[in-house]
Amino acid sequence: MLKVNNIQVVYNKVIMVLKGISLEVPDGKVVALLGANAAGKTTTLKTISGILRFQNGDLEDGGIEFNGRSIAEEDPDVILRLGICLVPEGRRVFDDLTVMENLRIGAHVRSDSDGIAEDLEMVMEYFPMLRARSKQQAILLSGGEQQMLAIGRALMSRPKLLMLDEPSLGLAPMLVNEIFGILTRINEEQDTSILLVEQNARVALGFAEYGYIMENGKIVLDGPSRSLLENEDVKEFYLGVTADNDRKSYAGVKHYKRRKRWLS
């Protein structure tokens, strides 16, 4: 479904943030993009969604295809209409609007009133809390409730590919498990592909089927999630299973064969 091919991204014409990133998200699959702060994960999502150039960033090289169509030069609204929706880090709900108003904004690219009504019911079924809070201002919701609202708002655009940037950030473990359980249902029941950016590698690899690990703007390792969970270096540098306190850069551990094909 999504093919990102060797993209290079520069901010303010001088700072290279992505240094040849390539990844794929197959139709109906869940893929995780992992890495520490400032690895380039959020920039990757901004580039795919088309908002990069509105934040002083430029795609200098490489290509992005969605269902066989190049989207590297498309505006964000076109990309959204094609079926890619980003749930940004920090949730970014409209504080002064009600829960229902936030959800309806998610459907602003649609004109099918009957379909919108059906999808509102679908979102309320996935997140019953939103029905109970539908008339409340979003600012009055807890962090976890706002995260649910942000995901629900994204679902109102009927995405084919849902991109999530740090959905577990600042949430209690029990709530994280609840949200990822719902995301699993969405993937299976709606056949929605998911590209997940996370620092919590254990949660992400338990949810996704395939994973990519980034450091300093590069992919340093990729493979099936089970394989990554069993990788000794991943255990040491990303899961906290260390033999000593000497933490090195993951990219300096070894060289890996990359760009493995998806194994279904």
Give structural attributes.
Rossmann fold; 10 strands; 25% strand; 10 helices; six-stranded mixed beta sheet; alpha/beta; 264 residues
Low-confidence stretches: 253-264
Level-1 CATH class name: Alpha Beta
CATH architecture: 3-Layer(aba) Sandwich
Structural class: alpha/beta
| SSE succession | EEEHEEHEHHHHEHEHEEHH
Per the CATH scheme, the topology name is: Rossmann fold
Q: Main sheet: which strands, in order across?
A: 6-7-8-3-9-10
Radius of gyration, taken over Cα atoms and rounded to an integer in Å: 18 Å
Report the strand count: 10
Number of domains: 1
The CATH superfamily label reads P-loop containing nucleotide triphosphate hydrolases
Q: Quick one: overall form?
A: globular
Percent range for β-strand residues: 25-35%
- Give the termini separation: 14 Å
What oligomeric state best describes the polypeptide chains here? Answer: single chain
Helix content: 25-40%
Task: Output the number of helix runs.
Answer: 10
The biggest beta sheet reads: 6 strands, mixed
User: If you average the pLDDT, what whole number results?
Assistant: 89
What does this protein look like?
With 264 residues, the protein is α/β, with parallel strands linked by helices. The protein has one domain: P-loop containing nucleotide triphosphate hydrolases (Rossmann fold). Helix content is 35%, strand content 25%. Helix 3 runs parallel beside helix 6. The longest helix has 18 residues. The chain is globular. The two termini are 14 Å apart.
